């Protein structure tokens, strides 16, 4: 599904900006703009709407705080900044701004008093909980808005800023998921002003966004805020979608040591990390395998018991006990999904050779089974299936290997 990002990026070039619509919501007035969809339909667009206070300073590693009302008219005609991140598969530098909790609304019409409210779709972007954005340039509304719907896209905190957890009150974690829940709450309260029906909200996403959408089924913080879920190429039951037990603190300590923070106590460590430059905290290269791959050092986690926990038990246990939001659910995968991750190895053949030489040691990390009781059995089965009698992996083998481990 990552490939959709690039397709949509180019499609956004077809849009034409026009007159500026205005909407008044609970927080204040917004001035938006207009675009034309793929089929030439003019739609109203409101970009960069803040749904939470900037998660900076004392609010870093804290649950999001709803945005305070503003005075005057807020300019909602320009794309917002992306959250701090590094796009691993193009080996980018770290980019983004910590003040990033914005959402976008795309609607075919501003409602009049007697207008029929339209179904709402809320999209959560993917990117391994490490990178991504809800901006129009990445996920264009140009196809969906030829239909009678209202579309919402959003940013949420990523990497350590979104998912750092010490398994205690110092930093409970799941901030990115809590951002999403607050955005859903914003939709519930405000979407009617854009012609959307708050009683008909479909939550959908791809890859880590698909897993995120699925997570909301299991969270009390999201109860009643959505009515259907579509998970594309990612669910809570993917092995990469949840942090294995005992791994959180190892990642936090490694990060703290890399930026010179003390690790004697969790409270002291987290307080120090609050004062470190945000871009340093999301530079995942200190955790990387082969200097390129994506180990996901910070992910959704089961939180220790608290009133504000997003996820108080494992999804498997919650599913077994029928403790979840019972809504219709659809899921699926895309053929050759592993191509985007495989591009790292296609562009640098020496990495593929290194992987082949160190297959036994590296694949457990790359394919997420290093924490299981018997990794040797899994490794030998993978080696037999993908290598057979060959001595090394080829680039043709790799997409299927990634498909199985990441998306199936």
TrEMBL record:
Residues 1-18 form the signal peptide. It holds the Pfam family COesterase. One of its GO terms (molecular function) is carboxylic ester hydrolase activity. Residues 20-391 form the Carboxylesterase type B domain. Gene3D superfamilies: alpha/beta hydrolase. Its EC number is 3.1.1.-. Keywords: Disulfide bond, Glycoprotein, Hydrolase, Serine esterase, Signal. The keyword Glycoprotein applies. It is an enzyme of class 3 (hydrolase). InterPro entries: AB_hydrolase_fold, CarbesteraseB, Carboxylesterase_B_AS, Type-B_Carboxylest/Lipase. It comes from the Eukaryota. The keyword Glycoprotein applies. SUPFAM superfamilies: alpha/beta-Hydrolases. Belongs to the type-B carboxylesterase/lipase family. This is Carboxylic ester hydrolase.
């Amino acid at each position: 599904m990552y490939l959709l990002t690039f397709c949509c990026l180019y499609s956004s070039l077809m849009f034409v900006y026009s007159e500026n619509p205005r909407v008044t919501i609970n927080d204040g007035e917004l001035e938006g703009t207009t675009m034309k969809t793929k089929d030439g339909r003019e739609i109203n667009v409101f970009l960069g709407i803040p749904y939470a206070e900037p998660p900076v300073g004392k609010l870093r590693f804290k649950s999001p705080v709803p945005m305070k009302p503003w005075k005057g008219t807020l300019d909602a005609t320009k794309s917002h900044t992306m959250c701090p991140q590094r796009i691993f598969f193009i080996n980018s530098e770290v980019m983004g701004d910590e003040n990033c909790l914005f959402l976008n609304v795309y609607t075919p019409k501003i409602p009049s008093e007697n207008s029929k409210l339209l179904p709402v779709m809320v999209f959560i972007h993917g990117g391994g909980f490490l990178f991504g954005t809800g901006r129009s340039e990445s996920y264009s509304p140009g196809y969906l808005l030829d239909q009678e719907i209202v579309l919402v896209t959003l940013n949420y905190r990523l990497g350590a800023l979104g998912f750092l957890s010490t398994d205690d009150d110092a930093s409970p974690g799941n901030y990115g998921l809590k951002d999403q829940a607050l955005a859903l709450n914003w939709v519930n309260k405000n979407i009617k002003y854009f012609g959307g029906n708050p009683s008909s909200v479909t939550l959908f996403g791809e890859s880590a966004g698909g897993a995120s959408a699925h997570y909301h089924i299991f969270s009390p913080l999201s109860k009643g805020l959505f009515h259907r879920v579509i998970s594309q190429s990612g669910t809570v039951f993917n092995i990469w979608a949840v942090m294995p037990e005992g791994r959180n603190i190892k990642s936090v300590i490694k990060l703290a040591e890399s930026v010179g923070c003390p690790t004697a106590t969790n409270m002291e460590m987290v307080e120090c990390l609050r004062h470190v430059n945000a871009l340093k905290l999301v530079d995942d290269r200190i955790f990387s395998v082969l200097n390129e791959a994506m180990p996901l050092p910070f992910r959704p986690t089961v939180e220790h018991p608290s009133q504000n926990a997003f996820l108080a038990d494992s999804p498997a246990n919650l599913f077994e006990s029928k403790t979840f939001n019972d809504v219709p659910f659809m899921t699926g995968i895309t053929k050759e999904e592993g191509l985007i991750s495989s591009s790292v190895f296609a562009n640098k053949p020496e990495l593929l050779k290194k992987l082949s030489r160190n297959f036994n040691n590296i694949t457990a990390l790359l394919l997420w089974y290093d924490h299981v009781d018997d990794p040797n059995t899994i490794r030998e089965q993978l080696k037999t299936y993908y290598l057979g009698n060959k001595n090394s992996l080829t680039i043709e083998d790799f997409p299927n290997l990634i498909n199985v481990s990441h998306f199936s």
